[in-house]
Amino acid sequence: MNSAPSYRAGHTICDESSIPQGQAIPWPGAAEQATDTARAEVRMVERILQLLPSIPFRNVERGRILSCIQMLIAATFLAAVGVMSVASIRYARSGATKELVTRGTIVTSIISRAAARALEQTAAADWRAALDRVIYDIRAEEGLEFAFILDSRERALAHSFGSKEGTVISGFDVVDPQAREGWTDDGFYYTVRSGVTLPGDTAKRDTVFEFVRPITLDAAAREKLMGNLELHLGFALPGFWSFAGASLKRLIPGLAVAFLMLIIGNYMAGVLVRPLRMLKDETASAAKASDEWQLEVEATGEIADIARNWNEMVENFRGSYKNVVEARRELEVRNRVMLYEKKRTEAIVDGLSDGVVVIDAYGKISSLNREGENLLDITREDAASRAPRDVIKDQPVLDFIAPILDSPEDRRGKASGSQTKKAPRRVADLEVQRKNGSRHLRVTCTPVLNANQAPGGVITVLRDITQERLEEKARKDFVSSVTHELRAPLTAIKSYVEMLIDNEAKDPNLQREFFNTINEEADRLARLIDDMLNMSNIEVGNMVLNKSLVRTRKLVEDAVNGVRSAAKNKSIELSVSIAEDLPDIEADKEMLRVVVTNLLGNGIKYTQDGGQVFLSAELLKDPGSASGNGMIAVTVADNGPGIPDDEQDKIFEKFYRAKGAREQKVAGNGLGLALAREIATLHGGDIKLTSKEGEGSKFAFLLPAAKTSRKVS
Amino acid sequence: MVEEQEAGRFNERAKPLVLTVDDEPCVGRVVQLKLENAGYDVVRASSGAEGLRKFVELRPDVLITDVRMPGMSGIELCTRCEEYRGSWPFLIIVLTSQLDEETRAWLEQNPDRKYVPKPFSPREILRTVKDNLNCMAAARREGTTA
Questions:
Q1: 3-state helix/strand/coil string of A630-662
Q2: What's the distance, Cα to Cα, between the start and end of chain B in Å?
Q3: Would A368 disulfide with which of A169, A372, A403, A624, CB 3.0-4.6 Å?
């Protein structure tokens, strides 16, 4: 029935290109296909919905997504409705086709029989009118597009196109009889025409079912008409859009409801999302705000709860935040205090006169103060985080601290034991070599524990005891010197007295000499004791000057006379030059005598036999004195061995004895110059030294002259 | 007093010769007087260098020296004199106020080194000289008779 028709050549009734080849009638299977498409789309949506929860959307985005999903569902629904509609339209159209075929078949049969009867009963002259009537009667049949009756020569005897008899229906082809396969026995068949344009009409018909049935006549009529006639009836099947329109009318309420639901849903989504959006905006503003974190959200229900909870949380947070801010402030203050304390401690440690080297539990130097740098001759930068043996160059120091560092028990305490015990402190005096000579260091190693009573390394304290050693040596030398100096006169006195007792000196002159010697030695002993007492008094600040107006010339002359015998013993040429009109001095006469005698005595003592010692006393006009009367300079120069530059300051130190003096083993107690300078200072004067090694020395004793001179007893 | 010291046994001299070295003139003077009164010949020197020179020149029987002297010290002088120990017999007496360990050890090395502490008594000097010279003479006698 649905076989494709073929078209007879030569009957070009319509444009071939406009006829779709192999036009197929949509059948119910198409609806199933459409349903499958809709199902696929639904599956896709379901899949999207399954994926959605795995995406961490925020509420607002979820609202939007929900809205989108809703719209997507609505769209899918609409698409499904559309697809279903198309399917139902096609289905309806196929039903209509069946109905049309049935009706066409019946109508064609009836009309053909009616036409046959009319022709048989009508006279030959009226058969055309009879045929016209048949056509005319059938015109009102529903859906009839055309009707015509062809004779055996395919001339239209009657038709609904309005043409005259015998007129070939131009522009309208006739189905080729040869191609009339599938005809019924009575010669009925039908064919389907698409896109046909009827003669005398311009509109194209979508689909026209053309029913053909022979009009079977009796013999007489057949003769008259020269064969049987053919009735062609064309019924139009309404087009797709006619059905669609009808379907649409039925669908409109449903669609309207769907659309309304969509709008309502969207509105509802909006209503739901609006507070969410407000919440979002508010929280965004709060997030950027420095203080205003409260939310103002016009909402009810959960959103309002959220906003309220948020605001409560903000209140709580504000309290906590306040605490945090306060805690932070306190922490900052503490931090500053700690920093200050740290710097202060560092400054204190740095300012210590002792060197401090801190070695941590891992045997690395963790701290070194300035004096430590100085004493060990290393720098902090070099020493930082390095093992002592890599930095410290002094082997004695390393040898001393190495056992402590190498022994875990010492460095880390008794770690293996059940209780931590600090190793004992160790002290040693070590000698290290430096460019300018050897230095003596007292090194104290103290293992320390940290706050957890765990081993915390070793603190090494270094003290430069070089000076102390020198002083100690000087003190020992001094004691030795003093002992010798004290015993020498004592020996003389004792032995001379014993000689007198034993009557060994019988000659009265010899006896007198003995008594004189005893007397001199006793004086010498007394002077020595005086020197020591004076020095001691000056040291403790108890020196009281017994000042009087002293005649300088007399003072100097007495001192010179006191040493003449010593100079003579060494064959030293002692020359004296005392300026005329030398002013007097307001001073402690005995003290001054000590100074001048010391200077002269030194000159004689340290100058080689046969040398020269020269004393001059003069008034210096230029350098002003405190009294404004000028300074008196008593200068003692010699051509002795001289004093090296590096010792010129030291010889004025207490107990210090110049290298030359020590090597020559010249007797002396190391007090003379120290005492002389102290006395000079006490009198507002000074002692200046100019000396060159190998050429001699010159000591100038400067004293302020007294304002007035007067006779002194 | 000297007769009993057997003249001629002391380095071919009638009297034993004592060399006293001291930088303090009065000490040397009193030692000289005491020993001369006791019958000894006494030569004085006021420094280590002078003492060494006179020691080598005069070959004395006794050397009495102070330890602490400017220039050459007493111990140094003694050490230099000890170099002549095999040439002639002599006695060394050191006078010092402080006897340190080093000096004590040095003294103990040889019985012919004696020590008199300062301040000394001239009697003690004389006794030390006399006793030790007698000991030395006795030892020598024993040596020759043996």
A1: CEEEEEEEECCCCCCHHHCCHHHCCCCCCHHHH
A2: 28
A3: A372
Q: What is the pLDDT of residue A1?
A: 39
**Which of B1, B2, B36, B9 lies closest to B141, judged by CA?**
B9
Q: Please enumerate in sequence order all residues whose Cβ is within 8 A of that of A705, keeping only pairs 6 or more positions apart, or say none.
A: A583, A584, A585, A619, A625, A627, A629, A630, A631, A632
CATH of the domain at A524: 1.10.287.130
Strands A455-464 and A426-434 come out as unpaired
Among the partner-chain residues A492, A502, A667, the one whose CB lies closest to the CB of B26 is A492
| Statement to judge: residues A595 and A639 lie in one domain | yes
Q: Does A663 touch chain B (CB under 8 A)?
A: no
Task: Show residues of chain B in contact with A484, CB under 8 Å.
Answer: 68, 97-98
User: How many angstroms away from the CA of A605 is the closest CA of chain B?
Assistant: 10
How far does the CA of residue B9 sit from the closest CA of chain A (Å)? Answer: 27
Residues of B in Cβ contact (< 8 Å) with A664: 70-71
Helix (H, G, I), strand (E, B) or coil at A514: helix
ipTM of the complex: 0.86
Quick one: tokens of A592?
A: 């001054």
Helix (H), strand (E), coil (C) string for chain B = CCHHHCCCCECCECCCEEEEECCCHHHHHHHHHHHHHCCCEEEEECCHHHHHHHHHHHCCCEEEEECCCCCCCHHHHHHHHHCCCCCCCCEEEEEECCCCHHHHHHHHCCCCEEEEECCCCHHHHHHHHHHHHHHHHHHHHHHHHC
Of A411, A58, A43, A524, whose CA–CA distance to B24 is shortest? A524
- Which CATH architecture does the domain made up of B3-145 adopt? 3-Layer(aba) Sandwich (3.40)
A204-215 and A189-197: which strand pairing? antiparallel
Q: pTM for the complete prediction?
A: 0.46
Domain extents for chain B?
A: 3-145
How many Å apart are CA B104 and CA A564, to the nearest integer?
Answer: 38
DSSP state of A4: P
A197 and A94 belong to one structural domain:
yes
Q: Cα distance from A658 to chain B (closest Cα, Å)?
A: 14
Domain ranges, residue A616: 545-704
How many angstroms away from the CA of A535 is the closest CA of chain B?
24
Q: Does B70 touch chain A (CB under 8 A)?
A: yes
Residues in A touching B73 (Cβ below 8 Å): 665
| Chain A positions in Cβ-Cβ contact with residue B31 (cut-off 8 Å) | 495
Which residues on B lie below 8 Å from A499 (Cβ)?
Answer: 30, 33-34, 122
What is the Cβ-side half-sphere exposure of residue A68, based on CA atoms within 13 angstroms? Answer: 10
Domain assignment present for A268: no
Determine which helix (DSSP H) or strand (DSSP E) holds A146, and give its type and residue range: strand A144-150
Q: Does residue A299 belong to any structural domain of this protein?
A: yes
B121 and A504: CB-CB below 8 Å?
no
Q: In angstroms, rounded to a whole number, what is the distance separating the alpha carbons of residues A393 and A382?
A: 12
- pLDDT < 50 positions in chain B: 1-8
Contact with chain B for residue A479, Cβ under 8 A = no
Residue B20 is predicted with a pLDDT of: 94
Q: Are residues A38 and A124 part of one domain?
A: yes
Judge: B70–A488 Cβ closer than 8 Å, yes or no: no
pLDDT of residue A48: 53
SS3 per residue for A156-204: EEEECCCCCCCCCCCCCCCCCHHHCCCCCCCCCEEEEEEEEECCCCCCE
**A413-428 pLDDT per residue, tens:** 444 444 445 567 889 9
Closest listed residue to residue B22, CA positions, set B96, B132, B89: B96
